[in-house]
Each structure stands twice: as structure tokens, then as C-alpha cells.
Amino acid sequence: PIRCIKDKIILSIIRSVNNFSFKILSLLLFRFDKKQITFLFHGYSGSNILPVIEKFQEERSCEFKLKVIDFPDKPFKGLKEKLKFKWNLYKWISKSKIVVTTEGAFKLRKRTIIVELWHGFPTKKSGLMCINSKYNSKPDIYCSYSDFGSILRNACLGIPGFKYYVTGAPRNDYLFNVNGKEELEKILSMVIGLNKIIIYTPTWQYKFYNFAESEFSLKNLFGFHEFDLDSFLDFLDKNKIYFLIKLHPKVEIILNSDRLNKFERIKFLSSALFREKKTDFYKILNSANVLITDYSSIYFDWLLLNKPVIFVPADIKEYRQERGWLLEPFEIWTAGPKCFNQPSLEAEIKKCIEDKDYYIKERKWILEIVHYYKD
After folding, report:
1. Predicted confidence (pLDDT) at residue 211 exceeds the cutoff of 50
2. Model pTM greater than 0.70?
3. Burial readout 304-331 (b: 16 or more C-beta within 10 A, e: otherwise)
4. Are 31 and 95 in contact (CB under 8 A)?
5. Given a cut of 90, is residue 6 above it in pLDDT?
6. Which of 161-175, 176-190, 215-229 shows the lowest per-residue confidence on average (mean pLDDT)?
7. Residue with the larger pLDDT of the pair 147 and 75
8. Cis? peptide before 329, omega within 30° of 0
9. Vertex 54, ends 375 and 34: CA angle to 5°?
10. Inter-axis angle of helices 360-370 and 147-157, nearest 10
């Protein structure tokens, strides 16, 4: 234990020295450019950066210089690769008048403006709302869904109210202006036809370490005490359903989902697949008839489509203790049925497919609170 603590202290010192050295060198070597905009891009799993970049690219003339720092989907292979990326990051942040991010960012010059688009509606506790939180990013501009969203986020951030701008989330434009079914067929190289589509988007949870280590990971797909995969596959086949799974990027790092794509009715949509096709997950989202999630904030974006959603909060008690939910009671803020076993899940899937207006009153009520812009 003493050696372990010693190693952590040494590693912490190295990181501090690197950060300090990078900061000083970047300020000395690179000139500030008031025309420079740098985007910190974190992949294609529902990016608020990508639609902004695409919009800039559509412009025939642009007075600004644009730079995209593409964060890798997988961990760095070694220290040399990590330091090289970090140096490049410091370089462009130092040069930039504006830095646009979705995951927080640091500032090297006072004149730099940090624009935070974030990566979802604030639902889980973070920042000031968490014990021992290390998150300390303070943006100059925070783009919010609504005044209600600003209030929730500020409970975690604690910044002046004038820094919030109600713009909506850029990625949600894809829900309205992209043919998701056509995009999905291109990505999967298959014809969907009259089949129904369900997308399952579990959020990041520590339980997935066990999920990843198991020999056959699909056994614990929803976290139920009992789950019969063969029976579920039969259910999907009888009801002509394609079941698409989009895991949280952090989960994908510890799970090779590509090896699980061996079923006709279940497909894993990996971050690598979207990167390969140069398209975003949100471009296929409106192809689905039903969304299933546990606690992912994607549910609040899904409300814009006015389609049914099912919740599988199998470990709700543990999740409240480990992470916490900003919106309580959970049961009121989640406009859809809650399933804790396989029979109830299959029954609710059938109801949602047969009746698009299932829970419609509850969905519309929450939609009005969460979203200022609904187009």
C-alpha cells in the first residue's frame, strides 16, 4: 500500500510539472490569434460540435480560422503519444480566441472565450453537487436547453447567470433534418423494410466492469436478476424488431462490442462504426420506434420526437447512492413505463409499438419544461 501511494504521488507531480511546462511554453511560443476558433471534438456519439463544424463548412466565406482537435475514442497507447496530443492541445488553446467544447475545457489566456455546448441535458449530479468533485471548468458561455436547464446546470457549475444562453442543443437539429432510416441502412449495409427499430442506450455505470468481464456479456444486458437471451431473440423475431444497442463511449473502452455482433436481430452500434462512416449517432436516432434507457439524458432529446420511451432502472437504489439524480422523484421525471424484469419489458415494448400515444401527456408536460426550442 505504501509503494502504491508513493507511485501515485510521483505520477501526480509529473502531471503537474507537465501541465505547468506546457502552459508556459505554449504562451511563449504561440501568438494569440483573434481569428482562431478551436473545436474540441469528442467523437460521433451524439456530438454537439459536429453540426456546428458542418455549418461552418457550408459557408462560402468565413473570416475565422478553424481547427478541430480530435480526441481519440480509445486510451493512448503510451506516454509519448499522450504527451504529443497534450502538447498539440495546449498549443491550439493558447492560440485561440474561442474554444468550443462539450466536455469542459481549461483557459490559458484571459482573452480566450470558452464556449460550452456540453453533451446532454443536466440530469445527474456533478460538480458542486457531488462530494469530492474534481470538475472545475468555468465556461464564459454555456449553451442551454432552457432556463430550467440553466438552473439545474448552475447547481453543479456555480457561474454568473448572464453566462447562460438558451440556444438548444445543435445535435438535435439532426432529429428533424436527417432521414434516420436511410442513414441507418447505409451504416449497417442492410434493408430495414417494415421491421420496427428499438434503440437501447444505457448510461455509464461501474457495473459494466462485470458486464465486460463476463464470458458472454449479453447475459446481463438490462441488469435484471434473470434474463433469457434465447427467449428475447425469439421475441424480437416474432415481432419483427431490430434491437440496436449504443453503449456509452466509456463502456466501449472496456468492452469489445464488435465481437457481439453475431445476431440477426441485435446490433451493437460502436463509436468506431460511426467514426468510420463519418456520421453521428443522432443522425440515425429518429429511425427508432422506441427508445430504451436506464438513466441516460438522451431521453430528454428523444422527447422532441414524441415517441414512446421505456426505462430499465434495475439498480435505481445503488445508482442514487453512487451518482445521484438531479430530478427527483425519478418516477415523475421519467415519462414512460419502468421495467424490472424481462416479461414486463417485452409486454411494454409491444404496448409502445402498438400505441404511439402511450404516456403522451407525461411526455408533453416534461417537453415543455425541458426544451425552449422544439424545432
Report:
1. no
2. yes
3. bbebbbbbbbbbbeebeeebebbbeebe
4. yes
5. no
6. 215-229
7. 147
8. yes
9. 110
10. 70
